[in-house]
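Example 3.2
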Amino acid sequence: MKRLILACAVAAAFVGTLAHAEDAKPDNELSFNAALSSDYRFRGISQSRKMPALSGGADYVNNPTGLYVGTWLSTIKWTKDAGGGGDVEVDIYAGKRGEIVPDVSYDFGILTYQYPSNDLHPRAETTELYVQVGTGPMYAKYSQSVTNLFGFVDSKNSSYLDLGANIDIAEGTQLNLHVGHQKVAHNTDFSYTDWKIGATKDLGFASGSIAAIGTNSDAYVGKGKNLGKATLVVSISKTF
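Structure, written as tokens:
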């Protein structure tokens, strides 16, 4: 989901069109993505019981307005570990992004996490509103649930604060830094902080990444495993 077209001045429109013809983006873009990861970590917690996960999605963006909509799916195991069923997560989101002023971006929208056939009570399905502001390689994002959070009782208005940076360190290589805090409303024992230090490399045919990811929580356990314990996650992904 995660580019704004800047309008050229009328006096320079013709020249600008010639100079930037190769950089111009179409009004409407549709893209797809697929990935294989050694572990699906969401906010530091393993969703796949520390086992490999397959994921993929699709995104549509209207460049002149910054409006977008998309979906993303991944294999999971946590709903079964919690006593329910289902083995797929389906995310659906929509929002708007652009620039507040030059070099300061914004992104806000709504995201719903769906878990078909999970059969949990309360239900695992969760909907959040989010807003993000960024400058250069740095960003800050705040999300707040408008439903219960992933099956926790009486957890509406839970929040997540995400601070991070994606820094170019070499051609085609980025350093990925992140720290976040998940507050679970009325369930403070499950609130925690998570972190990530990693790198992403453009391999030409795909993108590869490696990251150390962990949390300060031992409250999330599945099949006897501490799902928030620090680990190394390797993935390969392709956007087309």
